[in-house]
Amino acid sequence: MSAYLDLAEPEPEAATDGVWLTCIECGERFAPFDAIRYTCDDCDGLLEVRYADLPTWDDFGGGSPESGPYGVWRYAAALPFDEGVSLPEGDTPLHYVPGLEEETGVNTLRVKHEGMNPTGSFKDRGMTVGVRVAEKVGVDRLACASTGNTSAALAAYGARGGMETLVLLPDGKVAAGKVAQASLHGARILEVDGNFDACLDIVQNLAERGEAYLLNSLNPFRLEGQKTIGFEIMERFHADEGTYPDRIVLPVGNAGNTAALYKCFRELREAGAIGEDDVPKLTGVQAEGSAPMVEAVEEGTDEVRRWEAVETIATAIRIGNPVNAPKALPGIRETGGTAVAVSDDEITDAQRSLAAEGVGVEPASAASVAGLRKLREEGVVDADEDVVCLTTGHLLKDPDAAYEAGSKPEPVPNDTEAVLRHINDSRSVVETVRRGGSKAADAPLLALIAGGLGLAYLYRKLRSNE
Ligand SMILES: Cc1ncc(COP(=O)(O)O)c(C=O)c1O
Ligand SMILES: [Zn+2]
To answer: For residue 316, which phi and psi values (nearest 5 degrees)?
Structure first.
């Protein structure tokens, strides 16, 4: 492990109430709230929040997941404050998915659905802490670059905290639900003629000039909130299964969650709350069209090459320059994990499979399940493993993608008999297609029927719009 990712360091004079910031590149340490800084003053390296005291399970709600408080602030002993600007967030379900568990052939598969947070993604966990820090350092304008979910969360938490919010989005590449959220919560939405990475470059420049407080995951306090995903998974999984998961599979964009989970495990280890063998293998999944982290893991390099051109249906992870890579890559390596790229079709297939178990997620989230499938096929994940897949955002975030992936509405006359005839007439066809499921493309006849139904629907829709 890099020396400066080791948490065993004495409390520096700069600390405030046992909290300080350490540069993970050069080890320089800073006071947490005396000035606004996102990276190291000396070397521009990433900063990490550090604590004089690291809590154990007993410090969280008395040590039982059944005992409140629930959500992010249950873990206040591992956070820089006792409370934040809260909606509230966290305490998301760890779903059982028996169908997918059987299909993927692992010992246990659970799905941690972060789409069940107040604005529908894990970003809320980071914002409840980040906006609290903004209050502490006394700023009144918050800003972020976003593939969508960060902007939705920032807009909501900014509104809750009574602050102005500015969000920079890649023009035309943000799912409808997310823009709607940022809009209604009153953010100023700036659509940039460029991708997410260009938006982040600009917002970093604005933040450096003191124009706004940056709440992207480059801000180390955001990751403090997000590390509570790890606490929740470990507590709940252990309570239900009597063991800790062997592996956590998660989608990767800027690699903030990967970094946050790794920090969670380092803290639990340092506090003696878990043993070395209890640390789950961090396994990152990216879309094939946007996979710089996978490239770095496969090539064994420390430097991640920035991809200028990125494209995927999973717009939330359409990111070519994962800024948290220096924190996340060691996490993947030290825990014995890996990274894998999946195609857009594999992502959509996984989205349908999750939906078939009642779990509605946006495409980026389904990447975790698609990645698990692939790694099982490749024999990288063993049959005896206990696995948690992280699903990061709710289905309704991207209604267009959901509609494309799902069954299509069938127009029927305003008449019970006709509706009945329609149901019975089309039942055999619909059932055949449904049984074909996502494998329809392998069966030309079924593909034809499905295509025919789709065309018929489109035709009727067009006619009705005339
Ligand atoms: C739904 C969803 N999944 C995954 C990610 C990627 O998370 P990270 O940047 O922490 O890797 C994002 C980030 O925007 C997201 O919105
Ligand atoms: Zn430094």
So the answer is: -65, -25
| Maximum CA extent, the chain | 80
Share of the chain above pLDDT 90, in %: 89
Looking up tokens 């309570």, which residue turns up?
Answer: 239
pLDDT at 175 over 60: yes
The single-letter code of the amino acid at 264 is C
pTM: 0.92
Query: Cβ contacts of residue 78 below 8 Å, gap of 6+?
Result: 51, 54, 55, 59, 60, 224, 227, 228, 231, 267
Lowest mean pLDDT among 138-142, 331-335, 435-439: 435-439
Nearest bound ligand to the CA of residue 120: 1
Q: Is the CB of 315 under 6 A from ligand 1?
A: no
Confirm or reject: Cβ of 360 under 6 Å from ligand 1: no
pLDDT at 455 over 90: no
306 CA to centre of ligand 2 in angstroms: 21
pLDDT tens, 134-173? Answer: 999 999 999 999 999 999 999 999 999 999 999 999 999 9
What separation in Å is there between the alpha carbon of 27 and the centre of ligand 2?
6
- For ligand 1, say whether the CB of 199 is within 6 Å of any of its atoms: no
Listed in sequence order, the residues at least 6 apart from 272 whose beta carbon sits closer than 8 Å to its beta carbon are 56
